[in-house]
Amino acid sequence: MKQSYLILAALVLFISCKKKAEQTTESQKQPAPDFVVAFGSCNMSQEPNPFWDDILSEYPDVWIWGGDIVYADTDDVERLRTIYAMQDTVAGYAKLRKEVPIIGTWDDHDFGVNDGGSDFAIKAESQQVFLDFMGVPEDSERRNQEGVYTSHDYEVPAGKVKVIVLDTRYFRSELIKDEDSNRRYKPTMDSTATILGNAQWEWLGKELKESDADFNLIMSSIQVLSGEHGFETWGNFPLEVEKLENIIKQSGAKGVIILSGDRHISEFSRADVDGLSYPLVDFTSSGLTHSYFSFSGEPNQHRVGEVVSDKSYGIINLNIEEKRAEFKIMGDNGTVLQELKQSY
C-alpha cells in the first residue's frame, strides 16, 4: 500500500511539473512587447487607488492620463491648484511619477465644470494650472496656445510610437439637451458645431499626415465610437466623428488607436472604416477610484466583449515588428478583466 502511494505521489508530481513546464514554454512563445502603454481616468485623490503598484509592475513606457485626473469642479483657480496638489501627495502616484513618463489630457472635472465646454469662464487660467501639474516648462509653446493638446514621440529599437493628446473641452460647442429623461444629450447636425475647434483640427491633420510612427495613439477624454448612450460622446457631434475618420483615413497614418475615458466603465469598441486598411479601436478605461458599479446596460453597436463596471485601468502592449496590439482591461493585483488582440 505504501509503495502504491509513493508511485501515485510521484506520478502526480511528474504531471504537475510537466504542466508547469508546458505553461512556461507557452509563455516563452509570446514575444515581449516592444512598447507598453498604461492609461486611465476618473481619479479622486482623496479616494484609495489600488492600482499604482500594479501599473508599475507592468513596466510601462508611459502613463497617459485620460482626463478627470482630479475632481475639482470649481471656477476658483487657487482651489483648483490645491486639489491638483493633493494628487501629487499620493505616495503610489509619486513613485510612478519618478519612474515613468507622465503625459495626458484633462476632462470636465479637472477642466473645472461638469460637462463643460468652450463657454467656461476660467478655461485659460485652468489650462495654466493643468500644465503646472503636468510639469510643462514655462517656455513651452503649450503655455501660449489655446487648449492643452499636444503630441509625444517615442522611439525604441523596433520602431516608433506617437501619442497624440486631444483637448475635447476648450473649444467644444454647446451640447443639446435631450427631452428623453433617459438620455442627457442628443446629436446635432449643425455643421458649425465642433469638438476640437479649427486650430486643433488643422494641427491634428498635420500630426497624422507627417507621422512616420508604427503606431499612432490618439487620447480623447470622451468616447469616440460609442455614441448611442446619451451621455457625453463624440456621437453628439456626428459630423465631427465623420471628420475624424476621414482625417485618419486620408493621412495614411499607421496603426491609429483611440483611447478614451470619462464614463466610469471600461470597454472595447471597434469599427470598420471605409478606406482604412485596419479596424479602428476605441479603448475606454474608466475609472480608477470609482466606477459605475450599478451599470445595467446601454447600446453600443461597436462594442466588442462586455462592459467592465469594476474599477480598472488600461494596458496596451504593442508589438511593432508583428504589427499587433494587445489591449487589456486590468483590475487589482494584475487581474485581467478583459482583453482584445488586434493586428494592423
From TrEMBL:
The keyword Nucleotidyltransferase does not apply. InterPro entries: Metallo-depent_PP-like, PhoD-like_MPP, PhoD-like_sf. SUPFAM superfamilies: Metallo-dependent phosphatases. Gene3D superfamilies: PhoD-like phosphatase. Keywords: Signal. Residues 1-21 form the signal peptide. Residues 76-294 form the PhoD-like phosphatase metallophosphatase domain. This is Alkaline phosphatase family protein. It comes from Flagellimonas abyssi.
